[in-house]
Specification:
166 residues; mainly alpha; 58% helix; 0% strand
Length: 166
């Protein structure tokens, strides 16, 4: 029966540790969900940046090779071709350059959790507390005593020795 009590103490300590680790520990379910959410945000940001990169690559290719695009861009910069007349109008706001969307910064957010050491200490403390409670219950029931039992049983009569026969 004593062995079952000590095994039960180990079982309770392990159960406390495992339950704390799974609910509020570093590798808990809530931390896993938070990391999955961050992964989804980073994946979305990556796809947005990939789309921006594709658009800019297309625009660069067009600016390098398409003569109509080159001419339109040159007109934006106030260049003219032969035979065109330039009329300058005063009092209007100057044309602002187009700013490209470059995405937004995504920062890593550390999920909140209880350290693994604290989970282990809690499991050990729960096991020790249960062990102390069980020991007090044994003392109260009389199964365990702090004083030594000095009474020895003596068998009276003829002593019998186990002597080897030759």
């Amino acid at each position: 029966m004593k062995f079952a009590k000590y095994l039960f103490v180990l079982l309770v300590g392990t159960f406390v540790y495992v339950s704390l680790s799974l609910t509020v520990g570093q590798n808990s379910i809530s931390c896993f969900r938070a990391m999955e959410e961050q992964k989804r945000i980073v994946s979305k940001q990556k796809s947005d940046l990939q789309n921006i990169n594709n658009e800019l690559t297309l625009e660069l290719t067009a600016l390098k090779k398409d003569k109509a695009i080159i001419a339109a861009y040159a007109r934006k910069l106030d260049y003219v071709t032969d035979g065109e007349k330039l009329i300058k109008i005063t009092g209007l706001k100057p044309v602002t350059n187009t700013l490209y969307e470059t995405g937004s910064v995504v920062r890593h957010v550390e999920p909140e959790y209880v350290s693994e050491g604290l989970c282990k200490i809690s499991g050990v403390c729960a096991g020790l507390l249960l062990l102390i409670i069980l020991m007090f219950a044994d003392v109260k029931a009389g199964n365990f005593s702090s004083t030594k039992n000095t009474k020895q049983t003596v068998v009276k009569g003829i002593p019998i020795y186990d002597v080897q026969q030759i």
